[in-house]
Amino acid sequence: MKIRNRTPLHRLPVFRVIRMQMLVTLVAAILAGLVFDLTAGYSVLLGGLIALLANVYFAYKAFRYFGARSTRAIIQSFWSGEMGKQILAAALFALVFVGVRPLEPLALFAGYLLVLGVGAGALLLKNNPKH
């Protein structure tokens, strides 16, 4: 028996990571725009948004089920969430490279990797239920 998780995405613990990724995306884009130029700023923003949107999709898909009786559904939803995340990121990169001119590719990838780093670094965060 599959038990669906009725908790909204914004109430899941993973939402704290998504919020931090949003903040890092905005701050990095503003800093890149101020330090370098407008093209670098929106390139960092686009890279961060690609990673952020892909992670939101993964979180939505991966945390749909819970409970011991839902083990098979949990594994399937994690797998499909990760595959969907990779496909979405690739499609968004393709759209950006085709549709955005001028573009600073190094800044785009820097924004993407920065947001991925925030997600990886979240594993090191102290469990703080207050946020």
TrEMBL record:
<feature type="transmembrane region" description="Helical">
    <location>
        <begin position="83"/>
        <end position="100"/>
    </location>
</feature>
<feature type="transmembrane region" description="Helical">
    <location>
        <begin position="20"/>
        <end position="36"/>
    </location>
</feature>
<keyword id="KW-0472">Membrane</keyword>
<protein>
    <submittedName>
        <fullName>F0F1 ATP synthase subunit I</fullName>
    </submittedName>
</protein>
<dbReference type="InterPro" id="IPR005598">
    <property type="entry name" value="ATP_synth_I"/>
</dbReference>
<keyword id="KW-1133">Transmembrane helix</keyword>
<dbReference type="GO" id="GO:0005886">
    <property type="term" value="C:plasma membrane"/>
</dbReference>
<feature type="transmembrane region" description="Helical">
    <location>
        <begin position="106"/>
        <end position="125"/>
    </location>
</feature>
<dbReference type="Pfam" id="PF03899">
    <property type="entry name" value="ATP-synt_I"/>
</dbReference>
<feature type="transmembrane region" description="Helical">
    <location>
        <begin position="42"/>
        <end position="63"/>
    </location>
</feature>
<keyword id="KW-1003">Cell membrane</keyword>
<keyword id="KW-0812">Transmembrane</keyword>
